[in-house]
Amino acid sequence: MKNRLKIINMTHIALYSIVITVCSWIAIPTNMPITLQTLGIYFVIFYAGGGKATLSILVYISLGLIGLPVFAGFNTASVAFASPVSGYIIGFIVAGGLYFVAELIFPKAMKRGLVKYSVAAVGLLSCYALGAYTFYLWLEGEEGYWSCFFGQILVYGLVDTIKIAYAAFLSNYLKAVKA
């Protein structure tokens, strides 16, 4: 029975990693591509919980590290981590980890929308903070860190908020169908 549960959990984590991968491939090409990666990450966080989501994100990144083209633009980790988007990828681990820790510390409160989505917002801000930092390094200090950070929020904030709202709706809908 215990082995069966482990296999089921491992299968779920692998499937969630595939969801994240497929979402990262769907992109609107710009200087910094607008992908559905954030939607995939937050769908997995809301649907599976922080623990499984963090493991799924780590598997997703590990697949890129071994050379599979899982990142936006069908890139591997060697390309993704040699670009300004590497901070966002690391930020996804932080976002999943924050959600997991919040679930451990505040299990009842995380079942309520306001707390759950506030933790998700803090996770998104951590993605922006790390992404802005790598973007700042990529520009070799031509722009200040804070202008990079607030620029990311201005450019991607509304779009990412919509993606997170849709991820919440989709995960709630699928949980209701599953029940």
Describe this structure in words.
This protein is mostly helical. It has one domain: Arp2/3 complex 21 kDa subunit ARPC3 (Orthogonal Bundle). It is 76% helix and 2% strand. The protein has helices spanning 2-25, 37-48, 50-65, 77-80, 86-105, 113-138, 145-178, and strands at residues 27-28, 34-35. It has a two-stranded antiparallel ribbon. α5 (86-105) runs antiparallel to α6. The longest helix is centred in the last third of the chain and has 34 residues, at 145-178. The two termini are 22 Å apart.
Q: What's the layout of helices and strands?
A:
Elements lengths: L1 H24 L1 E2 L5 E2 L1 H12 L1 H16 L11 H4 L5 H20 L7 H26 L6 H34 L1
Give a concise summary:
By secondary structure, the protein is mainly α.
Order of strands in the sheet with most strands = 1-2
What CATH first level would be assigned? Mainly Alpha
How much β-strand is present in the residues? under 5%
Task: Give unreliable regions as ranges.
Answer: none
Instruction: Report the principal-axis shape.
Output: globular
What labels describe this entry?
single chain; 179 residues; Arp2/3 complex 21 kDa subunit ARPC3; two-stranded antiparallel ribbon; 7 helices; 2 strands
